[in-house]
Design brief:
The protein has about 170 residues and is of the alpha/beta class. The protein has helices at about 1-5, 10-25, 40-45, 75-80, 145-170; strands at about 25-30, 50, 55-60, 70, 85-90, 95, 100-105, 120-125. The strands form two sheets. Strands 2-8-7-4-5 form a five-stranded mixed beta sheet. One of its GO terms (cellular component) is plasma membrane.
């Protein structure tokens, strides 16, 4: 029986590592408190954040009034060529997972909205890149991301599992 309890601390550490990694991913509400709306300066919003692999973008908007289209490249982004979209979302609340490093381009598919600035360029760094914790910007609609709270939660989970492991070991 003693042999089986010997592995409990190891299992607890593995669980803590898995929970901490997932907890470090941030959920970015695109446009902050204003959401996906024409009134937001998306260039300022995006430049105030660091996006990492594993993070999520949450688009919140009025369905029927707006939509989210993912564009295939910078040329389509600059010219607002929403007809060349690689994906289209229109439910009013959509989550996009940032699954690999690189740049992705999003725009509103409603005619004229992209040309009015309702578009955002997201550059994603590798998961082991720089921190996604940001200083809250002063521009309208620019709420900070949730990564600082997530990082704290991951740290708390790691410490709790280490304490549990120690308690079970001794």
């Amino acid at each position: 029986m003693e042999v089986s309890t010997r592995f409990v601390p190891l299992l607890a550490l593995i669980l803590a590592a898995a929970l901490s990694r997932e907890a470090l991913a941030a959920k970015h509400v695109v446009g902050g408190s204003e959401g996906w709306d024409e009134s937001v300066d998306f260039d300022s919003w995006a430049s105030a954040r660091t996006f990492k692999v594993g993070d999520e973008l949450e688009f919140k908007y009025t369905a029927g009034l707006h939509s989210v289209v993912e564009l295939g490249g910078e040329s389509a982004y600059k010219s607002c060529d929403v007809g060349s979209a690689v994906d289209s979302l229109n439910g009013g609340s959509n989550t996009v997972k940032l699954s690999k490093p690189g740049t992705r381009y999003f725009a509103c598919g409603t005619p004229g909205h992209c040309e009015q600035g309702m578009k955002v360029k997201i550059t994603t760094a590798s998961a082991d890149g720089s921190s996604s914790t940001t200083t809250p910007p002063s521009s309208k609609g620019a709420a900070p991301s949730t990564s600082a709270a997530s990082a704290h939660l991951g740290f708390v989970a790691l410490v709790a599992s280490l304490l549990l492991s120690l308690a079970l070991f001794f």
